[in-house]
Design brief:
The complex is a heterodimer of chains A (about 70) and B (about 475). With about 70 residues, chain A is an all-alpha fold. Chain A has helices at about 5-35, 40-70. Chain A is elongated. Classes of the chains: A mainly alpha (about 70), B alpha/beta (about 475).
Chain lengths: ~70, ~475
């Protein structure tokens, strides 16, 4: 693996952390909101954000695979 | 509720963090770069700042320097998304500056916003009379007794095993009473015999060789306050009449002095001996006992108030955490072991066990590491002696059938390696006879031998001594 490759990988990992953090912290938020009354709608919205973030993360991993195949 | 400033260029993170902080009951303000953070800081004051390490217009550390240079001591938590920066950050962190790595969960925010200091306050406010911890029924009963006696000027005698916290109880009584003077502590066992007089009553200059200056005794030091005589029963009995005089006349005369000085203080004394022990072993004059034990308080050993162990353990750990600026915890499994153990050394032993586990603590999972066996060498030795006594005590009921034999305590012969079985047997026979006032039938029954054998043995012993 060249230095350039390592740099790209590090950037990808960093980018992937962003949606992962979102997933984790949104889950925390659900835990907090669930204790409140009438929170159903909010929880659904947060769950949607989480799903969006997982897709984002999945796409990033796909780019990683494709970049590996290109070389 | 606290006002929190969040500085992060990751909009999603910042917004999420904001919502979590708000759900935890705090107010949050948002800034996406250093410039807007500076604006916030100019217009209002914050109780806590969460700061990203790398921001579009510079490093978060620059802002830390600026804030500190302005003399603002607001606690700051650095937040980073790069775990690799973690170790570098941890070296930078010191008092008032902490760090977190993303993802940050609700507990991280919670801990950052209410650090252990708040927890320490919690137990301090739980402490009764400022010093005593425990919510067990036994302790609550004692709190009531302390309240009652504090309102009077009666002398108190504290009785309890070593390590139960007699000094703390003395402090509690002192705190609860509305006296103006100080609490003066004296350990009667630690004063050299010849100096007891001078220590308690003071001395005049030149009273004896080495008395270069006048000395005020502890009774005078405790004027209008409380004098705590720890280990009272270790005071040599021949010194005790002097003490009695003070207690009866409320005056002291300094060694080498001529003028009696009026004294006024409550005397709290403490001993780790039981009343029976005091009565039988002649360690305390009876008249002194009555003077000092106007109000005796028995402090229960820790094993009789096990429900207080978690509270005490947490309290000791918090003290260590605060001192060492650490965040160690006690694992649930260890806590139940602490509760199960019978603590022959009482609270003192518990405190030392926690301290030892703190020193051995695991840095990775932030928990205390306890020894497989808590028992100190002292405790082990004590237990072996008790075990041996228990075994011996169980002998008479097995051999003796009459209820009277059961009720008699057999004096234990001195067992020492180097003695022959015959010697021990002989000692046991004589001591058993003594305990039943020479009744040979009863003694034989207790010893588990026939009366004939007992006579034979005694005849043989007499033959030996005559020859």
């Amino acid at each position: 693996m060249t230095q350039h490759d390592q740099g790209t990988l590090a950037k990808l990992v960093h980018d992937a952390r962003k949606p992962l953090n979102q997933i984790s912290m949104n889950s925390e938020l659900i835990k907090l909101i669930a204790e409140q009354p009438d929170s159903q709608q909010q929880i659904i919205e947060i769950a949607n954000t989480i799903i969006k973030a997982t897709k984002e993360c999945s796409e990033l991993l796909q780019t990683l695979v494709e970049q590996g195949n290109d070389e | 509720m606290k006002t929190v400033l969040l500085v992060d260029d990751d909009h999603d993170f910042a917004e999420l963090a904001c919502r979590i902080v708000e759900y935890l009951g705090h107010d949050a303000c948002l800034a996406n770069d250093l410039a807007s953070a500076r604006q916030w800081l100019e217009t209002q004051s914050f109780d806590h700042i969460f700061l990203d390490f790398m921001l579009p217009d510079g490093s978060g550390l620059h802002l830390v320097d600026e804030i500190r240079a302005a003399g603002i001591r607001t606690p700051i938590t650095m937040v980073t998304g790069h775990p690799s920066v973690k170790s570098a950050l941890s070296q930078l962190c010191h008092d008032g500056l902490n760090y977190l790595t993303k993802p940050v969960d609700a507990d991280d925010f919670r801990n950052a916003l209410s650090p252990s200091k708040n927890k320490a306050k919690r137990t301090e406010s739980q402490a009764h009379f400022g010093v005593l911890l425990g919510e067990s029924t036994k302790m609550k009963h004692l709190y009531k007794m302390i309240e009652r006696v504090a309102g009077t000027d009666a002398n108190v005698m504290l009785m309890g095993e070593s390590g139960v916290g007699k000094e703390m109880f003395a402090r509690a009584i002192h705190n609860a009473s509305t006296v103006t003077g100080d609490l003066v502590n004296v350990n009667c066992g630690a004063i050299p015999k010849d100096l007891i007089g001078s220590e308690l009553f003071g001395h005049e200059k030149g009273a004896f060789t080495g008395a270069n200056a006048q000395k005020v005794g502890v009774f005078e030091q405790a004027e209008n306050g409380t004098l705590f005589l720890d280990e009272l029963t270790e005071m040599p009995i021949e010194q005790q009449p002097n003490l009695l005089r003070v207690l009866e006349t409320h005056t002291v005369t300094r060694v080498g002095g001529t003028k009696p000085i009026k004294v006024n203080c409550r005397v709290i004394s403490a001993t780790n001996r039981s009343v029976e022990d005091i009565a039988t072993n002649d360690v305390l004059r009876e008249d002194i006992y009555f003077r000092l034990a106007v109000f005796p308080i028995h402090i229960p050993p820790l094993r009789e108030r096990k429900e207080d162990i978690p509270l005490l353990a947490e309290h000791f750990l918090q003290g260590l955490n605060k001192k060492g600026n650490s965040q160690y915890v006690i694992k649930a499994a260890d806590m139940s072991r602490l509760v199960e153990y019978d603590w022959p050394g009482n609270v003192r032993e518990l405190k030392h066990t926690i301290h030892r586990a703190y020193i051995m603590a695991d840095h990775d999972d932030h928990s205390l590491v306890f020894d497989a066996n808590f028992a100190s060498p002292f405790a082990q030795a004590k237990r072996m002696v008790e075990h041996a006594q228990l075994n011996r005590a169980s002998i008479p009921p097995q051999v003796g059938t009459s209820s009277r034999a059961n009720a008699i305590q057999v004096p234990t012969p001195e067992m020492k390696p180097g003695k022959t079985i015959e010697e021990v047997e002989r000692e046991l026979i004589y001591q058993t006879l003594e305990s039943v006032e020479g009744n040979k039938t009863l003694a034989a029954r207790m010893l588990g031998i026939s009366t004939k054998t007992l006579y034979n043995r005694l005849n043989a012993y007499e033959g030996e001594t005559q020859s």
